[in-house]
Amino acid sequence: MAGTWGRISTAVSPFPNPHYCVVYMRTGISMAEIPKEEYVLKCTSGCAGCSSTLCLRYILKAAGPETVLVMPACCTSVIQGAYPNTAMNVPVYNIAFASAAACASGISASYRSLGKKTNIIVYAGDGGTVDIGLQALSGAFERGTDFLYICYDNEAYGNTGMQRSGSTPLGALTTTTPAGKIHAKKDIDSIVAAHSPPYMASACSAYPLDLFKKVRKALEVRGPTFIHVLAPCPPGWRFPSDQTIEVGKLAVKTGMWILWEREYGKLKISAPSRAAVKKPEPLATYFSAQGRFKGIDPAVAEQLRNEVRRNIQRFVREEEQSCDQ
Amino acid sequence: MRKRLATSKPTKGSSGKTGSWRTFRPVVDPEKCNACGMCALYCPEAAIDEDLRVDVDFCKGCGICATECPKKAITMEREKR
Ligand SMILES: Cc1ncc(C[n+]2csc(CCOP(=O)(O)OP(=O)(O)O)c2C)c(N)n1
Ligand code: SF4
Ligand code: SF4
Ligand code: SF4
Ligand SMILES: [Mg+2]
Fold this sequence. Notes:
By secondary structure, chain A is α/β, with parallel strands linked by helices. Chain A has helices at residues 51-63, 75-79, 100-113, 127-131, 134-143, 188-193, 208-220, 234-237, 244-253, 271-278, 283-288, 298-324; strands spanning 67-72, 85-86, 92-95, 119-125, 147-153, 199-204, 224-230, 260-263, 266-269. Chain A has 12 helices and 9 strands.
């Protein structure tokens, strides 16, 4: 959404509410196309400024009421609220950490055998995806389960107090890496890509319309689909709660996080990342916006910078090759 | 189906109201606001409705709306109690 903002005058606006402005973004979707229904009801038990809550709002707006969510243990199993009430206005199946994708496989099979097209969506954290739920995820993708797996990545085990996960980036402080993580972030996207899913994409909470569009696309496809959403977390990444969107934008603008989608193997870099892959902003702006990179060793910072450069090259090259096909 | 299956009911305010613990509240200056809707787009709690009114019962005071407002029409004011 770094593009140009334009306000459509109400005279030409096809939308009934004159107060609700219409802004077209470079994502090609206008806010007026987003359903007004909310499926995450007001006041969850998430932290103030939680981007996972924001993601879920748009994911469920894209999916609509004919949806079942499958959730392993994660922040969102708390966000949903405590019995006998819940903030979720779609059915949620809470399942053991390692089993989300396996459970979704069973649910999907039973709905399909009844001839129902209900959306089956796993919404899992990075710990529940790249570490603990990995074998179930691989199994479901291998079996061709008709479902959407969404990993919201706050780059640590948030619910239990920000321990490092396989998805924590190199150099980041967590409660179990008080001197900064010494291992690189696991490349879950390449692992999932090895299963050749018909559709997979990355997204970021700072670009909710891009996320919305990708969820819609994924749900149109039959078979296993995957979306990896970067979800900045104020207490975990140590930044003020009003900076949630800014930190997400910085991740994209610095190239630390690239937005892309791969349809039947063809890669396309998404609009908000177009400028960033050509001329990324200095990574230092991303580091200084968060406490978790405080005092990062210059050698580690350089390693990360190289990693970002290599990653950008890899995606740009893959996109060029995709075009040649 | 089993009779006593434990299922939760979808409820607005399932985690209570935020008024008692919120430290800042967003106050909109209608003179500056151009009704662009950015604040409502980014509010994680959906506490800003389509008429761009803030629901202070459920707003957590995170300040995202104020940071993202392109017109700087929202100020976060400390709650007095
Ligand atoms: C088998 C098992 N091990 C550990 C836990 C404790 N636990 C609950 S949530 C959680 C962290 C989940 O991290 P992640 O998947 O990244 O989601 P987040 O909390 O960050 O949203 C842990 C370790 C558990 N519930 N079950
Ligand atoms: S710890 Fe982070 S991801 Fe979890 S509820 Fe809080 S802000 Fe959201
Ligand atoms: S302060 Fe946060 S919760 Fe309150 S209206 Fe603004 S964005 Fe929503
Ligand atoms: S973001 Fe600012 S200008 Fe836009 S509708 Fe909200 S208060 Fe008004
Ligand atoms: Mg996590």
